[in-house]
Design goal:
The complex is a heterodimer of chains A (about 120) and B (about 110). Chain A is mainly β and about 120 residues long. Chain A contains no helices and eleven strands. In chain B, strand 8 and strand 9 form a beta hairpin. Classes of the chains: A mainly beta (about 120), B mainly beta (about 110). At the A-B interface, strand 5 and strand 10 of A face strand 4, strand 8 and strand 9 of B.
Chain lengths: ~120, ~110
């Protein structure tokens, strides 16, 4: 399967713990996006990378959140000192670079539950 | 205000055509409008994308008026498997930066 993959699919953690999620995009895609989705809502943009450069960050991405994409391949999203409000589905997507025309392919998501 | 608006839910019957409209008054110039389908516990799946007028592919059509302040996803002859949540995705320029914003989603229920 050459689609976008995310790991883990599910994560349960206690409040205050740190968690890290991984996303492997489609290999030829140079853009990678992170979104957060809560129940009954549409995905909310968090950040995106073009190759290894992080080009845009949402205000939703507080200083407890950090994302990296070393060497422009896979990406990690880390949440430090998790809070119950961080419970959500974290989605990763990738696309080719082509101006504003972006067919994003999404991974299955990582569901985070903070207890 | 950069915002996309969709109906919360729609009901239909198998074989009918379904039209879902998304309003996006302040869409960024040169930005494309994209629609996604999402099933429970899965990531969104690309359906169709367009810039203006009409786009058609093997699963849907997308109608965009000249002012581009709205778009309509048209699903011909829906089946039970089309029961899902449908989102529009649009880019806006806010505070001099470009933002991608999903609509809140339209929950489509297709009945036998």
């Amino acid at each position: 399967d050459t689609g976008v993959s995310q790991d883990p699919r599910h994560k349960i953690t206690k409040r205050g713990q740190n968690v890290t999620f991984r996303c492997d995009p489609i290999s030829e895609h140079n853009r990678l996006y992170w979104y957060r989705q809560t129940l009954g809502q549409g995905p909310e943009f968090l950040t995106y990378f073009q190759n290894e450069a992080q080009l845009e960050k949402s205000r939703l991405l507080s200083d407890r959140f950090s994302a990296e994409r070393p060497k422009g391949s896979f990406s990690t999203l880390e949440i430090q000192r998790t809070e119950q409000g961080d419970s959500a589905m974290y989605l990763c997507a990738s696309s080719e670079r082509s101006g504003r025309r972006y067919e994003q392919y999404f991974g299955p998501g990582t569901r985070l539950t903070v207890t | 205000l950069a915002k996309t608006t969709q109906p919360i839910s729609m009901d239909s019957y198998e074989g009918q055509e379904v039209n879902i409209t998304c309003s996006h008054n302040n869409i960024a110039t040169n930005d494309y409008i994209t629609w996604y389908q999402q099933f429970p516990s899965q990531g969104p799946r690309f359906i169709i994308q367009g810039y203006k007028t009409k786009v058609t592919n093997e699963v849907a059509s997308l109608f965009i008026p000249a002012d581009r302040k709205s778009s309509t996803l048209s699903l011909p002859r829906v089946s039970l498997s089309d029961t899902a949540v449908y989102y529009c995705l649009v880019g806006f320029v806010m505070d001099s930066s470009y933002k991608l914003i999903f609509g809140s989603g339209t929950r489509l229920l297709v009945r036998p």
